[in-house]
Amino acid sequence: MTRKHKLSLHVDVVKRVALLAPATFFIALFLFLPLSLVVTYSFLEKAQFGGVIWEFSLAAYEQLAFEHDIFTGELSVNLAYAGIILRSLLHAISATVLCALVGVPMAYYIATLSPRHQSMMLLLITVPYWVNLLVRTVSMLFIIRNEGPLNTFLIWLGLISEPLHIAYTNTAIQIGLVYSYLPFMVLPIYAAVERFDFRLLEAAHDLYAGRWTALVTVLIPAIAPGIVAGAILVFIPCIGAYIAPDLLGGGKELMIGNTIALQFQSSRNWPFGASLSVILMSIVLIALFLLARMARHGKGHKS
Amino acid sequence: MTQDSPALVLSNVSKSFGPVMALDHISLEIGANEFFTLLGPSGCGKTTLLRLIAGFELANSGQICLFGKDIAGLPANKRPVNTVFQQYALFPHMSVGENVAFALRRLRRSESDIKKRVGEILETVDLAGYQSRFPHQLSGGQQQRVALARALAPAPKLLLLDEPLSALDLKLRQQMRRELKNLQHETGIAFVFVTHDQGEALAMSDRIAVLSQGELHQVGTPKEVYESPATRFVAGFIGDINVLEASVVETRGDESICRIAGGHIVVCSGVAPLNARVHIAIRPERIKLSGSIPLEVKEVAYLGDATEVTGNISGGAELRLRLPPGTSPPELGATIHVSCETRTARVLPD
Question: According to the 3-state scheme, what is the secondary structure of chain A?
Answer without folding.
Answer: CHHHHHHHHHHHHHHHHHHHHHHHHHHHHHHHHHHHHHHHHHCEEECCCCCEEEEECCHHHHHHHEEECCCCCCEEECCHHHHHHHHHHHHHHHHHHHHHHHHHHHHHHHHCCCHHHHHHHHHHHHHHHHCCHHHHHHHHHHHHCCCCHHHHHHHHHCCCCCCCCCCCCHHHHHHHHHHHHHHHHHHHHHHHHHHCCCHHHHHHHHCCCCHHHHHHHHHHHHHHHHHHHHHHHHHHHHHCCCHHHHHCCCCCCCCHHHHHHHHHCCCCCHHHHHHHHHHHHHHHHHHHHHHHHHHHHHCCCCC
